[in-house]
Amino acid sequence: MAISSLTFDPTDPITMYAGTGESQTARMIYRESTGLGMGIFKSDDGGDNWELLPSTADFAYVNDVAVRDENGTGVLYAAVASGNYQGEDHQSLPSDGLYRSADGGISWEQVLPEIPDSPGDFYAPAMIEIAANGRIFVGTSENLQKKGGATVLWSDEGTVGSWSAFTDYNSSIAAENYYNVPARTIVASAPSDPNMVYAQFAAGYLNDENGFYHYRGRYMVKSTDGGESWTSINRPSNDWSTLAWHAFILKVDPENANHVYTGGLDLWKSTNSGQNWSRISDWVLMYYGGGDDYVHADQHAIEFRPGDPTTAIFGSDGGIFLSENTHLSIPTFVERNQNFNTLQFYSGDINPIAGSEQYIGGLQDNGTLKYTGGTLDINDMVSGGDGAACFWDQDESNIFITSVYYNRYYTFKNNFNNDYIDGQSGTFVSPADYDYRNNIIYANAVDFLGNHAGKLYRVSGVGSSLSGSFIDLFTFNTVPFSHIAWSKHSPPLSSTLFAGTGAGRLYKVENAQAFPETTEIGSPDFPLASISAVSVGGSEDTLL
Question: I need a surface site. Which of 110, 232, 262, 286 has the fewest CB within 10 A?
Answer without folding.
Answer: 232
